[in-house]
Amino acid sequence: xxxxxxxxxxxxxxxxxxxxxxxxxxxxxxxxxxxxxxxxxxxxxxxxxxxxxxxxxxxxxxxxxxxxxxxxxxxxxxxxxxxxxxxxxxxxxxxxxxxxxxxxxxxxxxxxxxxxxxxxxxxxxxxxxxxxxxxxxxxxxxxxxxxxxxxxxxxxxxxxxxxxxxxxxxxxxxxxxxxxxxxxx
Length: 185
Known about the structure:
- The protein is an alpha/beta fold.
- The protein has one domain: 3-Layer(aba) Sandwich (Rossmann fold).
- It is 32% helix and 19% strand.
- It has 6 helices and 8 strands, in the order βββααβαβαβαββα.
- The strands form 2 sheets. The protein has a 6-stranded parallel sheet with strand order 5-4-3-6-7-8, sandwiched between helices. A two-stranded antiparallel sheet has the order 1-2.
- A hairpin with a 4-residue loop joins strand 1 (13-14) and strand 2.
- The chain is globular, with a radius of gyration of 16 Å.
- The protein starts with 12 loop residues before the first strand and ends with a helix.
């Protein structure tokens, strides 16, 4: 990580004329999909718009999009996600188990983030896209270490109550009209 910190103790990268963060996003793809399509007023993410939103709003240099496992019928979707600028990460499964359990990527996301920290990969802060409470302990740790930017909940209804104690500076909702308008298909 960079050694420079701003007045809030946040790591920053100094560009020639401006200070710019180098942040990473970690997206729970199943949670994002269910949080936008399994609601009263379903909507779909435009992956290109979403990637631009992440880059412009949160200075996301690399956006990792985690999915359960490869399904041949979804190959066009995977291509769309990659063409929009996301790095696809699939959960490893025993072939006999595919179709018998959901593609839970929580542990993979947590491991990926912690591995990057352990290996001193040069990035500043983490943005997490998920409403799942399983990430709460990691989020608390990242906040304590001053390397957490935001958790983006796909919608207000499915945001885990575990996050209620976080200050509003650490979360936002993708289904807020101003955000939704920027990223929907």
